[in-house]
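ok trying again, last paste got cut off:
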Amino acid sequence: MSSEFFVSQSAVSIRYTSALIDAAQDSGVLDRVEADVQALLDLLHASEDLRGFVADPMMRSEQKRAVLNNMLAGKIEDITLRFLLLLCDNRRERVLPEILSDFLSVLEDRRGQATAQVTVAAPLSSEQETQLIAKLSTYSGKQVRLETTIDEQLKAGFVVRLGDRVFDGTLATQLNRLRQRLVSD
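nice, full thing came through this time. structure:
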């Protein structure tokens, strides 16, 4: 599932994210913690109840700790569970989705990788994907992978989001630029 749903990069999120990555790396369980983070993020995407539970400001942190401990102990890495409980202690559980999403982004960045969200009107051919990956990898200096979404309302062209950059090559944007040039001449 896409991590685009929860994009943050706030200072708080990055601080917690970096701490979790460093602790997991020092403990030699980074790959397993990454799998936990992806699974938790997928659960948050899929469950409105879980999102509501995490974001509920009325529930005391002790209650959230107890629920998370009962639900996840033995099913995820201890360091991941301790991290979640720490978030409850510090009343930061409401930013959990952003922290999890940022975890994956920061980890990807540290590995010299990047994910580009590509929205197209029709599926790309494998040759088009290869060319787009090569151009984006050259541009970013990272190994880029694509997450492609089909949006038939685009009619033609594509939109690529790579980090904080957006490349809009849609037909609508091209026509808009042409119209502006004609009006200004």
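cool. The CA atoms of residues 54 and 94 lie 6 Å apart. Helices lie at 11-27, 30-46, 48-55, 61-72, 78-89, 96-110, 126-140, 171-184.
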